[in-house]
Design brief:
The complex is a heterodimer of chains A (255) and B (276). Chain A has 255 residues and is an alpha/beta fold. Helices cover 22% and strands 25% of the residues of chain A. Chain A is built from six helices and ten strands; from the N terminus they run βββαβββαααβαβββα. Chain A is globular, with a radius of gyration of 18 Å. Classes of the chains: A alpha/beta (255), B mainly alpha (276).
Chain lengths: 255, 276
């Protein structure tokens, strides 16, 4: 079965081309990394797949259903970039994670035992059970990322889409993230990343974008970017938007 | 004299109780979405509705509800389109609402400076039996909506994109919240006044989040704080003979200062390492 299918996908923001001529087919059980420099269109691609960004040309299918007719949203778990983890009013880890269960809950009903179990299990997968009662804003970046992953998992999704789960997350937390994702047997995963890092062992396929086009689609690279050991990148908390500007070199330039 | 034996004070206190519950219950979602000033903008535009009531000779509460809802929905639609930033849309409401209100009240025969002031800052004697009925019905509807759709509103205000992918009716819920904010403003305007209503929507929430960790706990505590501020503010304004809105907001702000100092002291006194 095809989980995600993009045909001739093109997207433009205010006349500026963000994606053009993109073909992407993701089968069930694949773990695909969408790689590329900032501005390459990797986030736009997954946001287009989810219907958050309108297509200018081409088509998207989810689970063999054209996107405009797709209604089976509980099958999809979305982990957006971490900006949304803490908001104006404090919320506990459990409250945020439980909000992910809404698509599976009957409207206007209180949470059932199954709903609570789903939340407990999602918290356990990301190792945050003991932090369930804490305010999300007191967590580290990597822990907040795991909260958002748990939120997506409460729906028991068949497809998990993660937008830059490793950005601004230190190496140890990246490893914890990879462990959590590795526990999800049978779930198709599409994750956007600046570089593979700790996700390398997990990923079965890498799609590299540059200037809104697919540059490479195949097995994940053996080595990461040239600057893998660059001291600037040894500090993942560094704002990548500032540091990545002049580095738009393809990892494939080496091979 | 015991104020509780006076008819107008009984009505004012009942209205204060209901407003003290409804305002933070809706305000918490505005604060969560970082739209704390939304209630202010709607309050300004509702003034035009009040003045329109005087000019047309109908009940100002009714015209205020209609105009406030129209204004709130327009701002929400503008925000959804992304054409104008949220704060510019709010600024347009602020100026247009106040200017329209003062202009129309000047044109009407009934409206005077004193009437205007009673709508801007609240008035104890102005709460009529009809007002109490309207306030009860509308605040009951607001609280029921929060009770029934609170989870959905939380999800949308917490992370709009996630809620979209989760298949929630995000546009509808956003519009619903705008309408709820508009209704709250009109419900509260007799007691707190249009210029200060937003404070009762925001300050109890800000106070509560100094003291508790979760969203549900914040909501419950802010309801309690809202009731305490509204009721004690109304009583205080009776003895001090001031506008109730001002007294309510001063009490609410006092609570905020106390909570801030208290939580700061607790954090200071707690031994290092005790915080997780």
């Amino acid at each position: 079965m095809t989980v995600v299918e993009v045909r001739d996908g093109a997207v433009a923001y205010d006349g500026r081309v963000a994606l053009s001529g993109v073909q992407l087919v993701v089968g069930a059980g694949e773990i695909v990394a969408v790689l590329g420099a900032n501005g390459s269109g990797k986030s736009t691609l997954v946001r287009t797949v989810l219907g958050l960004v309108p297509l200018a040309e081409g088509s998207v299918q989810l689970f063999d259903t054209p996107l405009p007719r797709f209604r089976d949203w509980p099958r999809i778990g979305y982990v957006p970039q971490r900006v949304g983890a803490a908001t104006g009013v404090p919320a506990t880890v459990r409250e945020v994670v439980a909000s992910g269960r809404l698509p599976r809950m009957r409207r206007l009903r209180s949470a059932s035992g199954a709903d609570r179990t789903a939340v407990d299990q999602a918290l356990a997968v990301v190792d945050l059970t003991d932090r369930a009662g804490d305010s999300v804003s007191t967590l580290s970046g990597g822990q907040q990322q795991r909260v958002l992953i748990a939120r997506a998992l409460t729906c028991d999704p068949d497809l998990l889409v993660l937008d830059e789960p490793t950005s601004g997350v230190d190496a140890a937390s990246q490893a914890a993230l990879a462990v959590a994702l590795g526990r999800l047997a049978g779930v198709t995963i599409v994750l956007v990343a600046h570089e593979l890092g700790a996700m390398r062992s997990l990923v079965t396929r890498a799609v590299t974008l540059a200037d809104g086009r697919v540059l490479h689609d195949g097995p994940p690279p053996e080595l990461d970017h040239l600057h893998l050991h660059d001291p600037e990148h040894a500090h993942p908390h560094h704002d990548e938007r500032q540091s990545a500007g002049p580095r738009q070199v393809s990892p494939w330039g080496l091979s | 004299m015991n104020p509780l034996t006076l008819d107008f004070m009984q009505r004012a206190l009942l209205a204060a109780l209901l407003v003290g519950l409804a305002a933070p219950a809706v305000g918490v979602f505005l604060v969560q979405r970082r739209l704390a000033l939304m209630g202010d903008g709607i309050g300004h535009i509702a003034l035009t509705g009040v003045a329109l009531g005087f000019l047309l000779g109908t009940a100002p509460v009714l015209t205020a509800v209609v105009v406030a809802i129209v204004g709130a929905v327009v701002v929400e639609l503008v925000r959804q389109q992304g054409r104008t930033s949220g704060d510019v849309a709010l600024a347009l409401m602020f100026y247009g609402g106040i200017a329209g209100g003062v202009l129309l009240i000047g044109l009407s025969d009934e409206g005077s400076g004193a009437t205007l002031l009673s709508y801007l800052f609240g008035s104890l004697t102005s709460v009529s039996p009809t007002d109490v009925a309207v306030i009860s019905a509308l605040s009951g509807a607001l609280l029921l909506t929060v009770l029934v759709l609170g989870r959905e509103l939380f999800a949308v205000c917490h992370d709009e994109e996630y809620a979209t992918v989760a298949g929630l009716p995000v546009r509808f819920l956003n519009l619903l919240l705008a309408v709820m904010a508009a209704v709250t403003v009109t419900v509260a305007m007799r007691v707190v006044g249009l210029l200060l209503v937003s404070a009762l929507m925001v300050v109890p929430v800000a106070t509560a989040q100094q003291l508790v960790r979760g969203f549900r706990a914040t909501v419950l505590l802010s309801l309690a704080l809202g009731v305490v501020a509204a009721v004690s503010g109304v009583l205080g304004s009776y003895y001090a003979d001031t506008a109730p809105g001002a007294m309510i907001v001063v009490v609410a702000l006092l609570g905020f200062v106390l909570a801030s100092v208290g939580s700061l002291l607790v954090r200071r006194l707690r031994p290092v390492g005790a915080t997780r």
